[in-house]
Design brief:
With about 180 residues, this protein is an alpha+beta fold. It folds into 2 domains: about 80 residues, Alpha-Beta Plaits, CATH 3.30.70; about 70 residues, Roll (SH3 type barrels). The chain is about 15% helix and about 40% strand. It is built from 3 helices and 15 strands. The strands form 4 sheets. It has a 6-stranded antiparallel beta sheet with strand order 10-14-13-12-11-15, with helices on one face. The termini are far apart.
Length: about 180
């Protein structure tokens, strides 16, 4: 039996929550990351929960369980190449989970390929690696989910990061400070 890996699943529009619930009911591990955003209506402001990756959720399962996953209501496909499901590296999912647990503001971010690769050296996100970005005097670390070509950003203190060398895992494994 093959090992359990994380996979990105495409879901019908606005069905992330229900598809996640069905997977959970089947006993499968799922992850549908959300963030809070303040929206303005004509008469008021309100905080709403939005999905970090609209149209996608993540699930951990073995290759043999893929038909069970594809039979889940709301799920349309498993992201992959040439009709072969492609696993999402555990480090990418773990990094997003750590960002959400941190309590800091997390938001979707345009997919990036260029920029300084950094590793957070202190605080609750210590060890997390990504791309350093500056916008309007605020620093953020952006983590890419390569298979979806999407990114997530978290605000950080610029002094809490150290530059690392790029690697084949999207920069999620840091080198030592001596590199």
């Amino acid at each position: 039996m093959s090992p359990h890996c994380w996979y990105a699943l495409t879901v019908r529009p606005r069905h992330e929550r229900t598809a996640s619930q069905y997977l959970r009911n089947k006993g499968l591990e799922e992850f549908a990351p959300v963030y809070r955003v303040r929206r303005r209506w004509s008469d008021r402001f309100q905080d709403v929960e939005m999905h970090l990756f609209p149209g996608y959720i993540f699930s951990r399962f073995s290759y043999e369980e893929r038909l069970q996953v594809l039979g889940t209501p709301g799920i349309t496909s498993i992201v992959g190449f040439a009709k072969t499901p492609a696993p999402v590296p555990d480090l990418e999912v773990t990094a997003i989970q750590a960002m959400l647990r941190s309590g800091r503001r997390v938001e979707p971010w345009p997919y990036l390929r260029a920029g300084d690769r950094v590793r957070i050296e202190e605080g609750c996100l210590e060890g997390l690696c990504g791309t350093l970005v500056r916008e309007k005097d605020e620093w953020r670390v952006v983590v890419n989910v390569e298979i979806l070509q999407r990114s997530v950003a978290v605000e950080i203190d610029r002094g809490a990061v150290a530059q690392v060398c790029p690697n084949s895992f999207g920069g999620l494994v840091a080198s030592s400070k001596a590199d």
